[in-house]
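Listing S7. Sequence submitted for prediction.
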Amino acid sequence: MDTQKRQSAAAAWAASLLRSTLDLWLAAAANDTGLFHPYLDRRWKRLGDGPLTLVSQCRPIYNFYRGYELFGDTRYAEAARGGLTALQTYFRLAPGRCRWAVTGDGEEADPTPDAYGHAFSLLAQATAARALGDPGLMDSAMETWQYMSSAFTDDHGGLIWRLDGRPPDAARRSQNPVMHTFEALMALHSVDATGRARTAASDVLAFIGSLAGFTAGALIEEHTPDWTPLPVGQGGVVNLGHVFEWAWLLSEWHTITREPDVLLTGMAFLNAGLAWGLDADGGVREACAPDGRITASGKGLWQQCEAIRAMSRYVTAHGQTGVEADLQRTLSFFRRHFVDEEYGGVFASPEGLGYPARLDKGDAWKLDYHTVNMCLELIG
């Protein structure tokens, strides 16, 4: 099978997986209140109540609006719109500011402002603004960014993860909320005619690009409050799923700016992920030391999704045909191990891949955001 036929076959498979996954989430998780119930067993039946977080609310909003953009199915738009209303009704504390978690009844469970959660609030609102062509949603998203910028930014230009009452110089730092803020600002740029979102994204990238290992594609995950990398044993590892995620994000930024150095750095991330993360079967491992020594060899759902998304992008958009064999191996690995042919959807952690088996279809973190993004990239 030649390259074009392989890409067409992968796109058809991804479209089928995406449509069925969204339909299953719609049937299982949506409520009349607009709050999404993420706790679902393997058969897509609801499990007991747990906290509903800003992430478990906003990722489904994003997923459904992306599905609406692609398929035009108004059921997805209606579910996402209900989710946005619930976001404002139950999570909003002040303009742009949200609590971290509520109960299934919408009562406050955790009022702590969380930068990671706000990044997904920003992403959900920006995606909604684009999908619906609604300037009011763009204004709401910009309001969220203004709050994030003023509340979470530290003296170094990075983000404090949680405003939990500790002094800003007492909490370790992570690249993770910074990465997702960059992602969300790029989405906001797509509907922002003022240029403010692009400027903000550029500033975020300038900060993260100054950290140790970034230009070599080996960004350290955890840092001290002054953004010094922590030792490996304290979390100063390279998260290999995030390596692939950064490869894709930098490609996306390159489509906006056409800055050649950005693509070179994106290639560095891709090459590091392939060299350090990929095993002989095509599976992507969890983490390594900055020198590439594997520190966590488990292979979970989201790492595979981000690797497939990044490889697909660089093969199709940047002519990196040498990556295609690795892409096909990882796709095959994913389809063998992660797709539930009996009940539909995908597993977070199948048996035998280095983690305890987790076959449930949803929880506060397993929301199929990574699955949706992988499918969208394969569809093209």
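Caption to Listing S7: primary sequence and predicted structure tokens for the chain studied. The mean pLDDT is 98. DSSP finds twelve helices and ten strands in the chain.
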